[in-house]
Amino acid sequence: MSTTSQLSDEVKRLRRWLDEDALPMWWEIGASKPDSGFYERIGQNAKPMLGDNRRSRVQPRQAYCYAAAGQKGWQGDWQKAVTHGLNWFDKVYRLENGLYGNLADSSGKLIDPTFDFYNQAFALFAAAQTAMVFPERREDMRDRALSILKTLQDDYAHPVAGFEEANPPREPLCSNPHMHFFEAMLAWEKVDPDGPWYELTDQIAHLAMQKFIDPTSGGLREFFDHDWNPTPGDKGRIMEPGHQFEWAWLLTRWGILRNDSAAIAKAKRLFEIGEKYGICPRRKVAVMSLYDDFTVYDPLARLWPQTEWLKAAVRLASVTHGEDRYRYLTSAIRAIGALQPFLDTPVAGLWFDKWPDDAPMIDEPAPASTFYHIVCAIHEAEDVLAQMHK
Q1: What's the first-to-final CA gap in the chain, in angstroms?
Q2: Cβ(59)–Cβ(93) under 8 Å?
Q3: What are the tens digits of pLDDT across the range 43-69?
């Protein structure tokens, strides 16, 4: 059986699990009906955790999942699910300046209105996906995205490039929210080719290539001082395998769009670091973090880095040929193998999130926030395989 056929079969199996188990579960049980958004977690007994405080990022992420599912032909109630998440997101978290607060209690009272760039990135991302699947909401979503951008640029723009973590500025600055902002800008380029997104996408790509990625090792760091130098101490040395993969995926996509071979070369190196140093040889899963000398900092394995491994592997396979392509496709199969133990739950459609180095998988409620990673990985693998078959 060819590697491509084997990968294709594995992806079809994941897609069946997504369509038949996970999407129905997170709408029927994971949504607080009639109109109170999505729950933060579902227990492994398929009961929602009613009392959890709810992070604002969960709402646009779940809305994205159902918008993407609708785009891919899922027959469930995806339109209602998208609206359900976005309405509550706006009602509960939206602030007077058009940005979004951080945390609400289960009754929908905003208990932490503070700014987090990460949450704004997901507001932008979900708006793009919504504009894509609801043409009648396109202008409304575009206006919303432009308004978020304006406030970000007026109040949080970093003097060199990228964005601050707070106003007044505080350290460390973080690469992670910029990654999701980069993803959102790439999504908006597709929806609105005449908009201001290209310039911002390019700015973040260059910031990543010049500052986030270490010029010597080629690894991507997480935390920086105000001049975009690695923050002092251990924190500035941290490199997360999941983010090596996720940035590799994004920079490959950007490199294809801009015909930028340097970006793709950097993406290949990021992938190599994630795969060579970030995979636990015993458990065969991507771990949480490394030091900048590529020794393991945190050996905990979580679900989401496995999905990013898959996305990066298939996307890099699409820009390579022969032996290199075979290597990336084989790696994608290994990534699905790494994902599988997290999905082997008593009730289908849920997941485990954490696998410690020295203990079994932790039996705890499934976090809704992980769904975005899973949905994106399955659809990306399908899209790239279809494109490679043409």
Answers
A1: 20
A2: yes
A3: 999 999 999 999 999 999 999 999 999
The overall pTM is greater than 0.90:
yes
* CB count in 10 Å sphere of residue 215: 8
Give all strands (DSSP E) within 198-300, no chain letters: 223-224, 289-290, 296-298
Burial readout 19-44 (b: 16 or more C-beta within 10 A, e: otherwise): bebbbbbbbebbbbeeebbbbbbbee
Burial of 305 per CB tally in 10 Å (0-12, 13-18, 19+): buried
Q: Is the pLDDT confidence value at 1 over 80?
A: no
**Residues ≥6 apart with Cβ < 8 Å to 217:** 273, 292, 294
The identity of residue 162, as a single letter, is G
Query: d(Cα 236, Cα 243) in Å, to the nearest integer?
Result: 15
Arithmetic mean of pLDDT, 104-110: 97
List the one residue out of 343, 241, 276, 318 whose CA is nearest residue 10. Answer: 343
What span, in angstroms and rounded, lies between the C-alpha atoms of 180 and 194? 21
E strand segments, 72-147? 103-104, 110-112
